[in-house]
Design brief:
This protein is mainly beta. It has two helices and six strands, in the order E-E-H-E-E-E-E-H.
């Protein structure tokens, strides 16, 4: 699993989850649309999904873009039980998914 950010050459990396990619997008996209990475937030929810807020595109392995319906925030499945993957449908409540990661604060 790769994490969002930039590599040592300044190129954007991607976060991969459930076979889909959240594209950090190319710097040109952000410059052209006056968007900074600071406008994108990815938060974990205890025993639940990743909440992604901000101007993103979500694509599958082949580069096909998922319809986000113009939503400002989307929930991505972490448990693997969603019938609407890569999106969360609340299945984590029934499948016993347990996860409560905390940042180390270092």
């Amino acid at each position: 699993q790769r994490r969002a950010g930039t590599d040592r050459t300044g190129r954007c990396q991607q976060l991969t989850s459930a076979g889909a990619e959240i594209r950090c997008s190319q710097r040109k996209f952000y410059e052209r649309n006056d968007i900074s990475m600071a406008e994108i937030s990815i938060k974990t929810r205890d025993n639940g999904p990743f909440l992604v807020t901000g101007p993103i595109s979500l694509t599958d392995q082949e580069g096909n873009e998922f319809d986000l319906g113009g939503k400002e925030t989307i929930a991505l499945c972490r448990c693997g039980a969603s019938k609407n993957r890569p999106f969360c449908d609340g299945a984590h409540n029934q499948c016993g998914f347990s996860s409560a990661e905390r940042a180390s604060g270092e």
